[in-house]
Write a structure and sequence with these properties.
Layout lengths: L24 H6 L4 H41 L7 H15 L1 H15 L3
Helix pairs in contact: 2-4, 3-4
């Protein structure tokens, strides 16, 4: 009987490896030894990696823009923060994503302005 038990090394035990995959590498990477499922998982993960790259780039751009807003505001004699704007952002993310959205918005705000 084939099992999905993974040894502590992260690979399938030798007796649990599918024929044609002597190292168990496919199962270790995807969590399955079904070739079609492993391929689909690979496709999905490639798209996830693309999205992650885009998110990181957007995160960095947003933080830079937010820092520029703060610097421009302070250089003109304004305040470091505009709390009503922060509340607006928090509410937008909460409305769209729920409690996790609030946490994400807090991280975004901190990335742009630094900790309070």
């Amino acid at each position: 009987m084939m099992t999905d038990v993974v040894e502590s090394s992260g690979s399938l035990a030798p007796h649990d490896r599918p024929a044609g995959d002597p190292t168990g590498a496919a199962a270790a990477r995807t969590g399955t030894d079904d070739a079609a499922a492993a391929e689909r998982i690979g496709e999905i993960r490639r798209r996830i990696d693309e999205i992650d790259s885009t998110l990181v780039a957007l995160w960095q751009e947003r933080a830079a823009l937010s820092q520029e807003v703060g610097a421009t505001r302070m250089a003109s004699g304004g305040t470091r923060l505009v709390l009503s704007r922060e509340r607006e952002i928090l509410e937008r993310f909460r409305a769209e994503l729920g409690a996790d959205g609030t946490q994400l918005a807090l991280l975004l705000l901190r990335a742009g302005r630094g900790p309070l």
